[in-house]
């Protein structure tokens, strides 16, 4: 990881894209399950962040018929330096999207589903109402499916958006900080670090029972102690689950990879995060927000129950 004092090289002096180390390589998706999942998404006119963000885990997840649905279209109103999703003026919101998402969840037999979206700064509510409609459709069609949402920051509309979504009752509310605050001007220029933290705090203030989750990418030039500070900030906002994964440059136009962080370093970050009190931690080079989300949710729910049981036992002894 780079030292804080090291300045980035001028664009013309920067080396070509780094070759990926062995631990970050994955096989191209070819399985029958992958093809079936892709066909289902196309038939229902649904977008997935798996495709739009060029996720390296798409082959593994889609083979198991796990897909992260990306609502509100496939065009984002922001232009983050790390993201592969198209930028521009989005189309009208698809009124069939909530119902089609619920149909997809039912056909895939999902026990846990992750719903995310592009940023929609063009909409009066930032797209919050579409999240509400999707959650309600899922509750009607697949009532046993647990629901995890990954929302944008709803810039300028955050409080009303979070309140409406929390009222709909997702099981997990995820909003990613993405990187350390020092790198926001270049990596996430359309967002504000402390506004994202406030969003996560707002979720807990509306409903403390909703699990909160956030993630960051490593390899963008962050310093180790900066990552530790992000962990502390998340815990101050009562975030339950932290994800940490390796940033991969989608195209030469995007922010370059400054470091390929080793699996050993990820293990060390994971150990520190657990010591700081997160209920669940996912820290590997290939970790992404929705990777193994269902299994992680089950473990997180069990961890909360174990913690509450321990507190009850301690209070009982003190009575």
From TrEMBL:
Residue sites binding [4Fe-4S] cluster 2 per the record: 76, 80, 83
Task: Spell out the PROSITE patterns in the cross-references.
Answer: RADICAL_SAM (PS51918)
Give the matching Pfam families.
LIAS_N, Radical_SAM
Positions binding [4Fe-4S] cluster 1 in this chain are 50, 55, 61, 290
Q: Where is the composition biased (Basic and acidic residues)?
A: 11-22
Q: Which reactions is this enzyme annotated as catalysing? A: [[Fe-S] cluster scaffold protein carrying a second [4Fe-4S](2+) cluster] + N(6)-octanoyl-L-lysyl-[protein] + 2 oxidized [2Fe-2S]-[ferredoxin] + 2 S-adenosyl-L-methionine + 4 H(+) = [[Fe-S] cluster scaffold protein] + N(6)-[(R)-dihydrolipoyl]-L-lysyl-[protein] + 4 Fe(3+) + 2 hydrogen sulfide + 2 5'-deoxyadenosine + 2 L-methionine + 2 reduced [2Fe-2S]-[ferredoxin]
Query: Which cell locations does it reside in?
Result: Cytoplasm
> Region Disordered: what ranges?
1-22
Superkingdom per UniProt: Bacteria
InterPro entries hit by this protein:
Aldolase_TIM, Elp3/MiaA/NifB-like_rSAM, LIAS_N, Lipoyl_synth, rSAM, rSAM_sf
Q: What is this protein called?
A: Lipoyl synthase
Organism classification, top ranks?
Bacteria, Pseudomonadati, Pseudomonadota, Alphaproteobacteria, Sphingomonadales
């Amino acid at each position: 990881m780079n030292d804080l004092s090291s300045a980035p090289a001028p664009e013309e002096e920067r080396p070509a894209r780094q070759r990926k180390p062995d631990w970050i390589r994955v096989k191209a998706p070819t399985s029958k399950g992958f093809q079936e999942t892709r066909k289902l998404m196309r038939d229902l006119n649904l977008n997935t962040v798996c495709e739009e963000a060029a996720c390296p885990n798409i082959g593994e997840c889609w083979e198991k018929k796990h897909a992260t649905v990306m609502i509100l279209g496939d065009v984002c109103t922001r232009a983050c330096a790390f993201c592969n999703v198209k930028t521009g003026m989005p189309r009208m919101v698809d009124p069939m999207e909530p119902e089609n998402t619920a149909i997809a969840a039912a056909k895939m037999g999902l026990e846990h589903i992750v719903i995310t979206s592009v940023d929609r700064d063009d909409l009066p509510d930032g797209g919050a109402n579409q999240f509400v409609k999707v959650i309600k459709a899922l509750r009607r069609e697949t009532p046993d499916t647990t629901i995890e949402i990954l929302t944008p920051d709803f810039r300028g509309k955050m409080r009303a958006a979070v309140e409406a979504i929390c009222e709909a009752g997702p099981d997990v509310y995820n909003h990613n900080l993405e990187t350390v605050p020092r790198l926001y001007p270049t990596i996430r220029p359309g967002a504000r670090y402390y506004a994202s933290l406030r969003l996560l705090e707002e979720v807990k203030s509306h409903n403390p029972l909703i699990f909160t989750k956030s993630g960051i990418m490593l390899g963008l030039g962050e310093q180790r102690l900066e990552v530790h500070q992000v962990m502390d900030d998340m815990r101050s906002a009562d975030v339950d689950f932290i994800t940490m994964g390796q940033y991969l440059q989608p195209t030469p136009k995007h922010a370059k990879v400054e470091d390929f962080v080793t699996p050993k370093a990820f293990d060390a970050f994971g150990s520190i995060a657990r010591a700081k009190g997160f209920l669940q931690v996912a820290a590997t080079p290939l970790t992404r927000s929705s990777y193994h989300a269902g299994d992680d949710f089950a473990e997180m729910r069990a961890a909360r129950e174990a913690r509450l049981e321990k507190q009850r036992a301690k209070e009982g002894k003190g009575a």
